[in-house]
Amino acid sequence: MARRVGLSAAIFLMILPVALVAAEAQQYVRHAEKPYAEVIDDLRFAVAEHNFRITSSNEIGAAITARGIDTMPLSMVMHICNLDYAGRILKSAPDRLLDMPCRLAVYQDDTGVMIRARLIDQTDERVADIAARVNAMLRDIVDFAAEPAD
Fold first, then answer.
1. Which pairs from 37-42 meet CB under 8 Å and 24+ separation?
2. Domain annotation for the chain: domains and CATH numbers
3. pTM for the complete prediction?
4. Which listed site, 36, 44, 89, 134, has its alpha carbon 20 to 30 Å from 71?
5. Any bridge partners for residue 79, and if so which?
6. Residue 101 and residue 75 in contact, taking contact as beta carbons nearer than 8 Å
């Protein structure tokens, strides 16, 4: 039994770095050197310009701070959805519906504001074209929000 557990742990430790690289490859990250509130406003504008809708947002840092657990930096997870593309995914690959709504994470750190978009996996041929289009829009949305203020 101990040998089996040891082998399982060894395999897990060999696979873990590959899984982490794959997970990181499915994110698009930009740094913004403008105020957090301005980044959020620009994200909201870009989301609407790309025919997405904000389906929900979670102020993670504020929620933790409000509970008195700790003072957390400004941070938000924004859920956005383009119903046209969500409908296409639902028709062609309903098991991939978890890709919609898309998620954006915004948080303030010592260097400024970080913006992350979780990209849709493009390796599934049933949704590869849709994923490529949505990922391009997600990158555009993040790029707009990261651009310096005029």
1. 38/149, 39/106, 39/113, 39/115, 39/145, 39/146, 40/76, 40/106, 42/144, 42/145, 42/147
2. 27-146 (3.30.310.70)
3. 0.81
4. 44
5. 56, 103
6. no
